[in-house]
Amino acid sequence: MFDQMKILGVIAARGGSKGVPRKNVRRAGGKPLIAWMIEAAGRSRLMDRLILSSDDSEIIRVAGQYGCEAPFVRPAHLARDESSVSDVIVHAMESVPGYDFVMLLQPTSPLTRAEDIDGCIESCINSSSDAMVSVTQVDKSPYWMFHMDGTAMLKPVLGERYLNKRRQDLPVSYLPSGAIYMARSSWFMANRSFYSDTTRGYVVPAERSLDIDTESDLRYFDWITKANRQK
Length: 231
What we know:
By secondary structure, the chain is an alpha/beta fold. The chain is 29% helix and 21% strand.
């Protein structure tokens, strides 16, 4: 609890991942991938309860081994490829009511720390935000990016006026890190999204912003954990 506000953490992990099959329970850095976020959330000082939303018995079992409860089995219609994460969160909130804020924690962000989770909670509530999303600063500016038309002609994504500017003269740009999404419960139920024109960003360092989506990401994470152990 922070400032008399009760916070519910939800880890959403369905069984039918496509890019990396069974990725939530794949060994990564010496333990199941999902275990990293569970352990980070378990060290949070401010989160009141952490639950799992999953349709998969193995994910539920593994999560339980690392201390994350699963008070329900996610319905099949919320575990399809086209299922909305927002609907998954609404289902979790309706199944476990009574919390002022909800926080979605993605198990594909294993470098997330408890300090990131608690920092987002403090920042969101202290700033009276309706919603907050973890972001990281990008190293490739979108102001210098192009798309190509049918004749391979380069077209500036954000217009030509930025192309001749120095990097230091361009606005600092951020990308959602994919790890933490937080919102006031009543606001989320009304908006069904963590994004709006009032959503604020919580900056997480790039070195903690790995979002595992491919086999290469998994191998990179294994390399990082091995290097850290050697230190």
